[in-house]
Write a structure and sequence with these properties.
- The complex is a heterodimer of chains A (139) and B (168).
- The two termini of chain A are 13 Å apart.
- Chain A is an alpha/beta fold and 139 residues long.
- Chain A is built from six helices and five strands; from the N terminus they run E-H-E-H-E-H-E-H-E-H-H.
- Chain A has a single domain, classed as Rossmann fold, CATH 3.40.50.2300.
- Chain A is globular.
- By secondary structure, chain B is of the alpha+beta class.
- Chain B has a single domain, classed as CheC-like (Chemotaxis protein chec, 3-Layer(aba) Sandwich), CATH 3.40.1550.10.
- In chain B, 32% of the residues lie in helices and 29% in strands.
- Chain B contains three helices and seven strands; from the N terminus they run αββββααβββ.
- In chain B, strands 1, 2, 3, 4, 5, 6 and 7 form a seven-stranded antiparallel sheet that branches.
- Classes of the chains: A alpha/beta (139), B alpha+beta (168).
Chain lengths: 139, 168
């Protein structure tokens, strides 16, 4: 599982959902949690953090947002060699198969449909960690 | 009591029973996942004009095959506060922007499930960002000649409405 000092970025245009995700992450023991209101703001934060040598280690993003959607943010990260390996979860009300396939093709690490509970988010985070750390999973 | 100018059932494909069923399933399915809420539906009705009895509304502007549609949620604040306080673990001020933000997200989740269920029945609706407001500030319709399907429902006794507007 992600270490307790993992640096998270939560991206959602609704403050309520940012609070919900932050609450769950805090209950799971994480405290280094930043927030962004849309994909454009998030991308700026992600790029700045990477340039400063303190990159985000997991991004949890909504899909439907103004200025830049979560899918566009995901694609932007995947297109940047410095950002492409950051674990990226989409947490969204979109649950149709076509959307899930589109996200998978774009390289999403995991997909969570809202509403979700703490146990579901924890399970998904574990899967994301294992996906990005196969050696740890094998051990 | 509704003051809607009720009209006879319209022969509009988006007002079929299966759509009503999908809407109800989306509302109930989402609320069941958000907590233990008693959700009950009243008979739906059709209207060209009606008076919304509750103070909080959410609007989603959509299209289906290039035809404009609009979804509106109208909420009693009491169940909304119960839902939000359960989600975030904090008190919510019914007069604040926090309740509008919260009801926007609740509507986002409900509509997401409705959209999925409707898709399973062959109805493809788009997605849009919900815009929440106090009902007194509801903007006028962007298009003329709207006809509404209205589904009243209660959540822990608080009356709410789902409104689906098609434009001629």
């Amino acid at each position: 599982m992600f270490s307790p000092n993992t640096k998270y970025l939560i991206v959602d245009d609704f403050a309520t959902m940012r609070k919900v995700v932050k609450k769950v992450l805090t209950e799971l023991g994480y405290s280094d949690i930043s927030e962004a209101e849309d994909g454009k703001q998030a991308l700026q934060l992600i790029q700045e953090a990477a340039a400063n040598g303190t990159p985000f280690q997991c991004i949890v993003s909504d899909w439907n947002m103004p200025n830049m959607t979560g899918l566009e943010l995901l694609k932007a990260c995947k297109a940047d060699p410095k950002l492409k390996d950051i674990p990226f979860m989409l947490v969204t009300a979109e649950s149709e198969k076509e959307q899930i396939i589109e996200a998978a093709k774009a390289g999403v690490s995991e997909y969570v449909v809202k509403p979700f509970n703490a146990a579901t988010l924890k399970e998904k985070l574990t899967r994301v960690y294992n996906k990005h750390n196969p050696a740890a999973k094998a051990a | 009591m509704s003051t809607a100018l009720k009209i006879s059932t319209l022969k509009h494909p988006l007002f079929e029973k299966i759509v009503v069923d999908n809407i109800c399933a989306g509302i109930r399915g989402t609320l069941d996942q958000l907590g233990t809420f008693k959700t009950e539906f009243q008979p739906h009705f059709f209207a060209s004009e009606w008076t919304v009895p509750t103070p909080i509304s959410v609007v989603l502007n959509l299209k289906q095959n290039d035809h404009p549609l609009q979804v509106r949620f109208h909420f009693d604040p009491k169940p909304v506060i119960e839902i939000l306080e359960g989600m975030i673990g904090d008190k919510v001020d019914p007069e604040s922007q926090d309740i509008l933000d919260g009801v926007g997200e609740i509507s986002n989740m409900i509509y997401g499930l409705i959209k999925t269920k409707a898709s399973g029945s062959g109805f493809q609706f788009g997605m849009s960002r919900p815009e929440a407001c106090f009902t007194k500030n509801l903007p006028p319709s962007l298009h003329p000649n709207g006809q509404s399907l209205v589904i009243p429902f209660s959540v822990n006794g608080g009356i709410c409405h789902f409104e689906f507007i098609v434009f001629q």
